[in-house]
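hey m, so remember when u said the C-alpha cells were messed up on ur end? i reran from scratch. heres the input so u can diff it against urs
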Amino acid sequence: MRPCWMGMAGMGLSIRNGRIKRMPVIVLVISYLLGSIPFGLLLVRWKTGQDVRLIGSGRTGTTNALRAAGPAIAILTLLLDVFKGASAVWLARWLTPDNAWLEILAPLAAILGHNYSIFLTERDEAGLLRLRGGAGGAPALGGALGLWPTSFLILIPISILIYFGVGYASVTTMTVPLIAIILFAVRAWQGYSPWVYVLYCLIVEALLLWALRPNIRNLLDGTERGVGWRAKRKGAGSEKESKRSG
C-alpha cells in the first residue's frame, strides 16, 4: 500500500517535517476568495440599486443579472465570472508550474466560491448559516478556457447556440460541460493534455447538476424561466391569458 503522502505529492501537497507545503494551499484559498466575489450582485446594485438576490432565481450570475439590469450588465457579469475560473488556472500554473492536479483544483475552488460565497452569508429559517451565490456555469467555462485556451473557439459558439436556440440558461449550463468532457477526452487520448483535465469536466458537471436541482425540477414541471425568444413567447402567452380572463 502506498503511503498517503505519495498521493498528496501528486497534487502538490507534499509533506516535509510533518508540514504541508504552503503554496498549493495558498493557491486554493486565493482561488476560492476570487470566486467568492459576487460581481453580478455588485454590478446590478451599482446600475439599479437593487439586490439581485431578491430577483428571479435569487442567484448572482449572468442570467439573473440580465433579468435585473439588462444585457450590458449581464455581459460584464459573464466576462468577470469567466475570468474567475481562468485566472485560477493561471495562478496555479504561475505559482506551481507543471502541476496538473492543482490546475484543476484551483478552478474548482473558484466555482465553489462562486456558488457558496463567503461574502454572501445569511441565516435560513432554522437559524443555520447559509452561503449564497450563482450556479457556477461561467467560472466553470473559465476554468476550461484556462486549461485549454483554444477551446473558446468551440465552447463559446456552442454556448451561444444552446442559450438562444433552446431558450433555457439552465440547459446551457448543464450541456456545455458534457461537450467539454468529449473535447478534453479526445485531446487526452491524442496525448495533447492530461486525463486529469477530463476529471475536471466530470466534477464540474456534478457540481452544476447539484446547484441546478431547482431548475431541473422546474424543467420537468414545465415551469422553468425562459430566456430570449422563449421568455417572449411565455410573456405573450401570459398576456393573452390575462386578457381572456379579464
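this time it looks ok to me. Residues 125 and 198 are 39 Å apart (CA to CA). if urs says something different then somethings off w ur setup not the seq
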